[in-house]
Specification:
444 residues; Growth Hormone, Chain: A; 0% strand
Amino acid sequence: MHASKPTVSPLLWVPTGYFTMALGYVMLTSVTAIMFKNLGMDNGKAAEYSSLLILAYTVKPLFAPFVEMYRTKKFFVLCAQTLIGLGFIGIALVMALPNYMAILMALFWAMSFVGATQDIACDGVYVTSLDSRAQSLYCGIQSLSWNVGPIVAAGGMVYLSGWLHVNVFHHDAAVFGPNWIDAWRIIFFLVGGLTVLMAFWHARFMPDGARAENTPASVKAAGAILMDSFVTLFQKRGVWRMLAFAFLFRLSIGFLEKIGPFFMVDPAGKGGLGLTNEKLGVIYGTYGLAAVLLGSLLGGWYVARKGLKSTLFVLCCAVNIPNVTFLIMAVYLPTNLYLITAGVMIEKFFFGFGAVGFMIYLMQQLAPGKYTTTHYAFGTGIMGLCGLVTGAVSGHLQEWMGYVNYFIFVMVATIPSFIATWCAPFYIDEAAANDPKAAQAVPA
């Protein structure tokens, strides 16, 4: 594809573009779980409902070729951000209605597909508006900006919801139920307004994005490309072991992702730590995410120095073994915030450290070939499918087992990850995988 020369500095749209992507994604797939919990929903339904919103992001490779066909990539970014912003504002309005939950879930469901479209289009603007040198130059800014989104959403907005609930609406933070509606309506108004503001900003500063050389000219052509990408994927040597790795590497994390925050806010009588939303936002959404960022940086350095093949199993251990901190906290129920914060940061740091191995493996072993970008997207889609399945059942399992037994189950769930990692094939030399010309020459 040919990169079009940007007319404005990428600093004016890359940070805001990826921040807006992350803000919508985290609000829809993570923060909604906390909101459902606050509104009095049990752990099973809260985890299930929020996890189902991951589906659109899992299947987005299926409609990516069709997004390429019409108008410009910027057009889809602006439309998506406007619709997402108005959607969040609509959710805030709908929550004032009686029996609002069915409408709320329909809006969330529609917004998740719009959000997935935004991701496709924004990535497209990035890779077609910047040449290879500029892409490398702004890659760190892109990653950092995306990670600011979870800090604002899972940290700032969750904190603010608790602060509003107690200090503005004068409700008891420990009581879950309809009284939380007022605080969360304000949160959705704020997020919606911010997203619409970003759409206006990008209308002024984001470039259109160039069209890829193989852009389909019709729906039939797009379908043919999609089918061919499927066929060539499954013709790859060792593809089933690669896909097993993609699904299983983060299996235990999928079981932990929704239940960890629930454990933090549930009262001691239910086996939880009884934290408020404010404390959860600071510990989980700020210190925890800072630990993920630090771990990711060090993990990337470690892989670059030692090579992926010799480090992949170590990275798998880093992702899975520190989950034991939640089991320890469930057994002893600490009340000291420093100990709780330390437990979360340990798990998050090592998750960030090890998770880089997953992405690099997909880039170097699964993706190379005729459809590098599409096959990489399929790999991340399999990862998303794991998160959807494990998240949907995690709350029901936790309610059945209790927190201590559930966290024991999470540790048992690490075993498939170790097996899949040990059996993950390496058919492509790492140096060749990092050479674009060599990657294109890899046979299906």
